[in-house]
């Protein structure tokens, strides 16, 4: 069975003399944009920056050979299986994966999504190949199918992005918490930087002379937990202290009409600006418009908080989710009950007053990058891949 592939050079920190063989299996990386895809790209970026010789194969179920792949180089082979018929693509990938494992006997297989875990278990376990399952958030927060739960329980390790996600997955599925290892999200210090508000964007959104609250989120009816409605409910109270406040909402989805109606019902339609979808390349300029990033949500982690902090923007999150990690349990931002509009209003007023250290943009950025920069991710990835090697 032919495998479409390309090659890349991969290295890792520490002194590892023998060749290390890894296999990574993901649903997709390039076909769509999203939090999981961004996280996986950061992992690949960190992996490519390691310094000891190793080889790896990447299997991509829903990506095609025609995708733009910036990670191509010498020792990292990409295998694509996108087809018009999803089940046929899955069968092709399963056959190619089994053939590779039988021929090359990799040291470890990394399963990139719970939807692939049963397949990976069925191939690896009979052959005695250890495997790790990567988890992210809500896809493992509720009881899984027995087969998926068994695949997690049989894994050599489970990687996840936050303490909260670890704890919810373990409680819901009876997992051994000691088996779960942390590999948090990361922020690229060069992609998100502080800067002045662009006059053309200020004019476009009618933000001149205003204090700007901002949220970046999907506006889907299934994602009400993002808390955009809670922030809209908080606006009348915030406006009593900051009469010129406006709320810039970046994102799109079928819940926007409900949110717009809520703003109208509360008499704050003139304060809420729905900007729609903004490509990743343009997000930094939009973060720079904000005086505060507000998302009282329930996240598995919340990469948007890191993006805002890296731009020097103070942040507010919910207080019962994975945002505890990027916000360092409140050291780096405000954490409030995620459905409490009065608590959100009180915290927003504190942020806009700017008297707290957590509002100091340069300090906030330095803390976020030190803890969650690509270099920190690379170091953690090294520790997980080479646990017996001491880094320099």
Commentary on this structure:
The protein is α/β, with parallel strands linked by helices and 392 residues long. It folds into 2 domains: 21-187 and 374-385, 3-Layer(aba) Sandwich (Rossmann fold); 199-372, Rossmann fold. It has helices at residues 35-48, 86-104, 117-127, 146-154, 163-173, 199-205, 228-241, 256-265, 280-287, 303-310, 341-353, 361-372, 374-385, and strands spanning 21-26, 55-60, 76-80, 108-111, 131-134, 157-160, 180-182, 211-216, 245-250, 272-276, 292-295, 315-318, 334-336. The strands form 2 sheets. Strands 3-2-1-4-5-6-7 form a 7-stranded parallel β-sheet. Helix 5 (163-173) links the parallel strand 6 and strand 7 (180-182). Helix 2 (86-104) packs parallel to helix 3 (117-127) and helix 7 crosses helix 11. The longest helix has 19 residues, at 86-104.
Q: For the terminal residues, how far apart are their CA atoms?
A: 42 Å
CATH architecture assignment name of the largest domain: 3-Layer(aba) Sandwich
User: How many DSSP E strands?
Assistant: 13
User: Helix count, per DSSP?
Assistant: 13
Task: Look at the helices and sheets and give the structural class.
Answer: alpha/beta
**For the CA atoms, what is the radius of gyration?**
22 Å
**Total domain units:** 2
Strand content: 15-25%
Q: Can you tell me the CATH superfamily of the largest domain?
A: Glycogen Phosphorylase B
CATH topology-level fold name of the largest domain: Rossmann fold
């Amino acid at each position: 069975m032919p495998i479409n592939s390309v090659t890349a050079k991969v290295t890792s920190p520490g002194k590892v003399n023998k060749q290390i063989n890894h296999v990574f299996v993901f649903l997709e990386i390039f076909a769509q944009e999203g939090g999981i895809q961004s996280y996986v790209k950061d992992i690949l970026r960190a992996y490519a920056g390691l310094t000891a010789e190793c080889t790896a194969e990447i299997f991509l179920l829903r990506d095609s050979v025609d995708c733009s792949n910036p990670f191509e180089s010498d020792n990292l082979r990409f295998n694509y299986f996108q087809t018009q018929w999803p089940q046929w693509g899955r069968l092709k990938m399963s056959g190619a994966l089994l053939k590779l494992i039988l021929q090359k006997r990799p040291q470890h297989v990394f399963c990139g999504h719970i939807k692939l875990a049963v397949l990976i278990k069925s191939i690896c376990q009979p052959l005695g190949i250890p495997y790790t399952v990567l988890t992210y958030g809500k896809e493992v927060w509720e009881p899984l199918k027995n087969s998926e739960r068994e695949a997690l329980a049989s894994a050599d390790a489970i990687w996840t992005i936050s303490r909260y996600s670890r704890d919810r997955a373990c409680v819901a599925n009876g997992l051994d918490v000691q088996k779960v290892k942390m590999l948090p999200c990361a922020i690229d210090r060069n992609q998100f930087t502080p800067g002045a508000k662009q006059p053309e964007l200020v004019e476009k959104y009618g933000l001149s002379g205003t204090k700007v609250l901002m949220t970046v989120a999907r506006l889907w009816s299934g994602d009400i937990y993002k808390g955009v409605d809670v922030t809209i409910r908080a606006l009348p109270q915030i406006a009593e202290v900051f009469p010129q406040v406006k709320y810039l909402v970046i994102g799109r989805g079928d819940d926007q009409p409900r949110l717009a109606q809520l703003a109208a019902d509360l008499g704050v339609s003139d304060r809420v600006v729905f900007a729609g979808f903004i490509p990743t390349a343009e997000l930094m300029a939009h973060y720079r418009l904000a005086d505060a990033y507000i998302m009282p949500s329930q996240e598995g982690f919340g990469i948007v908080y890191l993006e805002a902090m890296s731009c020097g923007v103070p942040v507010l999150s919910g207080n019962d989710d994975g945002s505890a990690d990027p916000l360092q349990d409140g050291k780096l931002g405000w954490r409030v009950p995620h459905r409490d509009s009065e608590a959100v209003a009180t915290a927003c007023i504190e942020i806009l007053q700017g008297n707290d250290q957590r509002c100091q943009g340069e300090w906030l950025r330095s803390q976020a990058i030190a803890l969650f920069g690509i270099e920190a991710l690379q170091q953690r990835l090294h520790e997980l891949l080479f646990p017996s090697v001491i880094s320099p």
